[in-house]
């Protein structure tokens, strides 16, 4: 079981969002920062335990990290890319699940 931390557990790299994600956040009167903070702290949202465990492992091995959060009628995904050859994550994207 994932236990969120009070501080970031990995870097996000450049952060971008799709227009659809920004519109859904606005409709729900929520901010991208609150979901990015949850994602970066290890609160993976509405993932099954198997996917949450994959994220926990990804923090250590540098693979891709995915969080999923209910946002009214929409599902917001946050994806942080795998690390590059230098051990850095290039980007984190906020998007709606149907935009993937």
Question: Helical stretch count?
Answer: 3
The major sheet is characterized as: 4 strands, mixed
Query: Oligomer, anyone?
Result: single chain
The geometry reads as: globular
Q: Would you count the extended β strands for me?
A: 4
Report low-confidence residues grouped into runs of 5 or more: none
Taken together, the total number of domains comes to 1
Helix content: 25-40%
Strand content: 15-25%
List the helices and strands and how they pair.
Layout lengths: L13 E4 L1 H9 L4 H9 L8 H13 L3 E7 L2 E7 L10 E6 L4
Parallel strand pairs: 1-4
Antiparallel strand pairs: 2-3, 3-4
Report on this model:
There is one protein chain. The chain is α+β, with helices and mostly antiparallel strands. It has one domain (14-99). Helices cover 31% and strands 24% of the residues. A 4-stranded mixed sheet has the order 1-4-3-2. A hairpin with a 2-residue loop joins strand 2 (65-71) and strand 3.
């Amino acid at each position: 079981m994932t236990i969120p931390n009070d501080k970031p557990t990995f870097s996000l790299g450049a952060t971008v969002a799709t227009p659809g994600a920004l519109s859904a956040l606005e409709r729900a009167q929520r901010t991208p920062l609150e979901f990015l903070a949850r994602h970066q702290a290890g609160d993976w949202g509405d993932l099954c335990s198997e996917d949450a465990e994959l994220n926990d492992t990804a923090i250590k091995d540098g693979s891709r990290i995915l969080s999923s959060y209910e946002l009214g009628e929409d599902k917001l995904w946050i994806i942080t890319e795998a690390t590059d050859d230098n051990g850095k994550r290039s980007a984190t994207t906020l998007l709606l699940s149907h935009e993937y």
